[in-house]
């Protein structure tokens, strides 16, 4: 991969798996140089990660000047996106600008409107006239259909299909392989579980999930006539 010009400095808030992934993507596919990680003091259990410092969030602005550094909060959907949202707001209160990442291998049409602090992984398709709000995470391989509106603080796992003219309100979560039919409204604070298909409007705070699949009584050994 061709080296990119690193002309912006970034602090990643978090030190979990998403923080590690965000570091990799920002480092090798963006103009950002990641200079530190940061966590709240009660969760500080390491001094460095990937050879760069991990510092307390409470004292962050004393070490990394908000005029010279930006922030990305690498938190998933904990507390239905509330934790990531809180840390974003606190970072802004400290004077930091929030960073976004759009993979060079994502397809985002030219007139898509993007809010601040979005992370769009590879193989996402974001079609014409889509609006993405602030603090939206699109993991790998999603389809966001034309004219759809995604409001703030939403999290999409992988291979989610949002059809055309869908409105998704704040703080929603979409599990792997979930599908939303066209011309629908997903109200705020909904949890759409893996493999769920939604074909009508939801209400606020609803959970949708399919029954757990139980194993057949016939084992693979008997089915394939295996001895072991």
Give a description of the structure:
The termini are far apart. The protein has 2 domains: 92 residues, Rossmann fold; 99 residues, Hexapeptide repeat proteins (UDP N-Acetylglucosamine Acyltransferase, domain 1), CATH 2.160.10. The chain is α/β, with parallel strands linked by helices and 228 residues long. The mean pLDDT is 96. Helix 3 links the parallel strand 5 and strand 6.
Entry keywords:
228 residues; Rossmann fold; 6-stranded mixed beta sheet; UDP N-Acetylglucosamine Acyltransferase, domain 1; 14% helix
Order of helices and strands: EHEEEHEHEEEEEEEEEEEEEEEEEEEH
The CATH architecture of the largest domain? 3 Solenoid
Strand content: 25-35%
> Biggest sheet: strands, sense, closure?
7 strands, parallel
Stretches where pLDDT falls below 50 for ≥5 residues?
none
Instruction: Quote the distance from N terminus to C terminus.
Output: 47 Å
Strand order of the largest sheet: 7-10-13-16-19-22-24
Tertiary shape: globular
Mean pLDDT: 96
Give me the number of helical elements. Answer: 4
What structural class should be given to the helix and strand makeup?
alpha/beta
Radius of gyration: 20 Å
Number of domains: 2
* CATH top level assignment of the largest domain: Mainly Beta
What is the CATH superfamily of the largest domain? Hexapeptide repeat proteins
- And the CATH topology of the largest domain? UDP N-Acetylglucosamine Acyltransferase, domain 1
Q: Which bin fits the share of residues in helices?
A: 10-25%
